[in-house]
Design brief:
Number of domains: 2
Largest sheet: none
Order of helices and strands: HHHHHHHH
Strand content: under 5%
Length: 187
């Protein structure tokens, strides 16, 4: 997290505003400490307009990644066949095959809550995120609240079975399903 646009702040109040912003984000991010690694960059004068301070940010990120190289797994090299994009027909076939294996929503949700899903793949990840988003929308809760609930569930899943549910926590799933739900509700 980079506190940017500091160039837009009055120099006399910049340090105080940056510190207050830092505290807000530290408090918000604290609950995710066990799920994701995060750091706040608040270099004095940091701004994206002219790039001031970003060289330090990028060097720090590279150094951190090098220090923690053993804690993450690089993807294995793909073969030439795996590099090929699947055709539309192949994708449709895969989607239909996976859909045939789907359980009812009630069964899926029960398995999700009890950490007994037979598979944790992209489809089940999206399905769980979408169901959480729908439930939150029914309660008039925001997509951000849905995201927090989803990340809490992922933390629970990872605690119950770290091998199956490893490193799948990210906010993009709910943000990518949100427009789909709006589109489906607008007709």
């Amino acid at each position: 997290m980079a506190i940017t646009k500091q160039d837009l702040l009055e120099p006399s109040g910049r340090a105080k505003a940056v510190q207050e912003t830092r505290v807000v984000f530290e408090n918000a991010l604290a609950r995710y400490r066990d799920l994701i690694k995060w750091k706040i960059f608040d270099i004095d004068g940091l701004n994206a307009r002219d790039g001031f301070g970003f060289e330090s940010v990028l060097l720090d990120i590279a150094e951190t990644m090098e220090e923690h190289r053993d804690t993450y797994q690089l993807p294995e090299e793909k073969t030439a066949i795996e590099d090929r994009e699947p055709s539309k027909d192949e994708l449709v076939k895969r989607i239909k095959e996976e859909k045939e294996q789907d359980t009812s929503t009630a069964t899926f949700w029960s398995q999700f809550e009890s950490s007994t899903l037979p598979a944790w793949n992209h489809r089940s990840h999206l399905r769980a995120g979408f169901l959480i988003l729908l439930r939150c929308m029914q309660k008039m809760e925001s997509v951000l609240e849905a995201t927090d609930i989803f990340l809490e569930h992922l933390g629970r899943l990872r605690a119950s079975n770290p091998d199956r549910f490893a490193n799948t926590a990210h906010r993009s799933v709910l943000f990518s399903t949100y427009p789909c739900s709006i589109d489906s509700n607008s007709s």
